[in-house]
Amino acid sequence: MKIYHYTSIRNLALILHSKKMRFSRLDMVDDIEEAAYGSGQYRIKLGQYCFVSCWTKSNKENLALWNMYTNYRGVRIGIESVPFVTYKVNDKFYSLIDKKRHYDDDYIISCISCPAKLYDIKYVKDPEAEISKIVKQISNNALYVKRNEIGIYKREEWRIQEESRFIINVSPFDKDLAYRSISEDDYDITRIMKLDETVYPSLVRNKTIKKTFFDMPLDPVKLNNIEIMLGPMTDDADEIIVRSLLKDFPNAQIKFSKFKDKLRNHT
Prior knowledge:
Layout lengths: L1 E6 L1 H10 L1 E6 L7 H4 L13 E7 L6 H8 L4 E6 L6 E4 L2 E3 L5 E3 L3 E4 L8 E2 L1 E3 L2 H5 L3 E5 L2 E4 L7 E3 L7 E10 L2 H5 L8 H10 L1 H6 L8 E5 L2 H5 L2 E4 L5 H10 L7 E4 L11
Parallel strand pairs: 10-13, 16-17
Antiparallel strand pairs: 1-4, 2-3, 2-15, 3-14, 4-16, 5-6, 7-8, 8-14, 9-14, 11-12
Helix pairs in contact: 1-9
């Protein structure tokens, strides 16, 4: 099954050059409401710990997406799902990251929280009500987080996007708080355990992390068979640029929007 991503020709150049695609932090995407709501009794703003790559499964051209993300002058990328490099965790689970657990400056990322799975957006009347149920307290110092429901609710007025997403979730920690009670001579396992202990207070405090995006590597086989559709208002120069960008991808297909020469430019 092919999936589709509408973007600018500039972004296409970056994708083809780096052979990666960007996962943006949820509190920085176009729908401000997605990260405006808190979840659970502490109103935890989970959007700052969630990173998304947005697609649509529909092979029908979507004029709203052409307009919103390309101003009719960009491209639509078509590629086989899942387009990213994946890593086998077990016979039933593949992840977008290769490490069981990785600690960065202020967050933890686990292969379990980054499934190689495309989630369909659920368009609902009251997204705040759904988001508020994602976090539940299970003890004085522990929370249960429904990670597979973070980043999947949008107001029903956005339904026109027919959106699906790949999602990466991370957990914040507080290094200063963790290391306050240990010495430099403590073993690494002790330091890691202390970091884990600060996840709960960091979530409760809505501790912001520095990370704002992940650039994830694309599967080279799928990338080599990429399909590029030129937008309704692209011109000959745009086509020349796109063909030049694809010169190292001999299996790539170029298509043209069925709305080419059928939209009036009012600018």
